[in-house]
Design a protein that fits this description.
The protein is mainly α. Helices cover 68% and strands 2% of the residues. The protein contains 18 helices and 4 strands. Strands 1-4 form a two-stranded antiparallel ribbon. β2 and β3 form a beta hairpin. The longest helix has 32 residues. It starts with 5 loop residues before the first helix and ends in an 8-residue tail after the last strand.
């Protein structure tokens, strides 16, 4: 067996043995750990250990121990940590961002160089300025929005250094393998919970089951202390198409085998079912279809056959599952949210409620339309649609700037011919139909971390102006 397949083989064996161990000794585990929360915390400790072990294996620490104690090594560690920890809750993401920025500042002080920021970030800065202006007239008042720091700081931090592309691809492989561990632990945690709460596997996956006062899907990744499937997918799916990217590049030091990709896909699809994430399943299938067509494009006849097959199957699926497709975009919760948003936008077309006051507007509209719309138990916090959400907050200007930013990013991804950025923008356009990733810190952090990292890879393939501001230590 090739060394490149050893990692995935070990993880498969570990996952299966863990499931068997839980099945055989679940009563003893219950007695020792008392509840599922303690089991989740135990998994979290194991994850930290796996993070460190994979990091040591993926780096040159074993061969070159001194490399871990250099400023360059510290910078690579901060980037790797930033990417991986973005899958956890917002505070973990904030701390990881702060650690990364401190490391880049140390690196900048040592080298005294800064690189020109990619002009495409002007679109992101324009969106951040919109939010800054949007604080005017709000309940808290005019201020610098606390959630917008990531829009500025992450691109500026990345402009303080340049890392060779081979190292960036190795960081992506590290991300790929650690997220594979994340999925393995999530499956193990799910299996423990179905036995602990005595819920059937089919019932868990096919029904909106309520377990001990919580939705069943919330238990799957509860060990990581973050439960929202959509935002977890904003890390899982970019990691998936990053795996395809580095597999295609076939660089010796960052190569991912077909077996590793296959294991990741199977784990990912299974996890989407466990989390009951429709958008996640669509995202994974979208990545698989795009990559299938890409690999078959070399052989024209197979490409045409498969393309026609996809079109036929997709068309048949739309006809046969018309109700399921329509409910994917407009389920009862999202229909109500859209109705409330549109009702408000009609009277506030040119300027909305302002930054971070969407939830206030929705509560007000819910009271006004109480006799018209069905009453739902879930509290109204946001619209579940980025375009409508921006219009609620900023009116038409908000919608225009959001569209310009996303179209501009997509156009740049086509111009640069970068697969990673193309897939990333398509993913966010898809998610923006049913979520508002730029309305909450978790979404903003994930958006900026991966966007900036992928653009940094692009910048490695083009000439970027470098400015030497000072030399350290100074002569004399």
């Amino acid at each position: 067996m090739k060394k490149i397949n050893l990692y995935s083989t070990i993880l498969i064996v570990f996952t299966i043995l863990s499931l068997l161990f839980i099945k055989l000794f679940h009563k003893q585990i219950d007695i020792i750990l008392a509840n599922s929360i303690n089991f989740g915390n135990l998994l979290l400790i194991f994850f930290v250990a796996a993070f460190v072990i994979v990091g040591i294996i993926e780096s040159d620490i074993i061969k070159k121990p001194k490399s871990a104690f250099t400023i360059h090594g510290l910078l690579i560690l901060s980037i790797s940590t930033l990417l991986v920890l973005s899958i956890f809750n917002r505070w973990v993401g904030i701390y990881a961002t702060a650690f990364f920025i401190i490391c880049t500042l140390i690196y900048f002080i040592k080298n005294g160089k800064v690189y020109a920021i990619n002009p495409v970030f002007l679109l992101v800065f324009a969106y951040a300025i919109l939010e800054f202006i949007g604080t005017i007239g709000t309940k808290i008042g005019f201020r610098f929005p606390e959630m917008t720091y990531s829009f500025y700081l992450i691109p500026i931090a990345f402009s303080c250094f340049r890392i060779e592309k081979e190292t960036l691809l190795r960081i992506l492989r590290f991300l790929f393998r650690v997220i594979l561990v994340f999925m393995s632990f999530s499956i193990i945690n799910w299996f423990f919970n179905i036995i602990h709460f005595q819920v059937g596997i089919v019932e868990w996956i096919t029904k909106k089951t309520n377990v001990n006062g919580m939705a069943a899907y919330e238990y799957v990744c509860s060990w990581s202390h973050y439960k929202h499937p959509s935002y977890i997918n904003l890390v899982l799916i970019p990691t998936l198409f990053s795996g395809f990217y580095i597999h295609h590049k076939k660089q010796e030091k960052s190569y991912i085998s077909q077996l590793e990709l296959a294991v990741f896909v199977v784990f990912c699809l299974f996890l989407e079912l466990l989390m009951e994430s429709r958008i996640g399943l669509v995202g994974v299938v979208f990545v698989l279809v795009i990559n299938t067509l890409y690999y078959l494009h070399i052989k024209k006849i197979y490409f045409k056959i498969v393309l026609i097959a996809f079109l036929v199957i997709g068309g048949a699926g739309l006809v046969v599952m018309e109700h399921s497709v329509s409910s994917f975009i407009s389920d009862p919760v999202r229909k109500t949210d859209s109705a409330l948003a549109i009702h408000y936008i009609k009277d506030h077309l040119w300027w909305g409620a302002g930054y971070d006051e969407e939830y206030i507007v929705l509560k007000q509209q819910e009271m006004e339309m109480s006799g018209v719309l069905p009453k739902l138990n879930q509290p109204k916090t946001y619209v579940h649609n980025s375009l409508l959400g921006n219009m609620v907050q900023y009116g038409i200007p908000g919608a225009v700037i959001l569209v310009v930013m996303m179209v501009g990013l997509f156009w740049y991804s086509l111009q640069s011919r970068n697969y990673l950025l193309q897939m990333f923008v398509c993913l966010y356009l898809l998610f923006m139909m049913i979520e508002e990733p730029l309305y909450v810190q978790e979404g903003i952090t994930r958006f900026m971390v991966f966007l900036t990292f992928f653009i940094h890879i692009i910048d490695n393939e083009r000439k970027v102006k470098c400015y030497t501001l000072f030399k350290w230590p100074p002569k004399g």
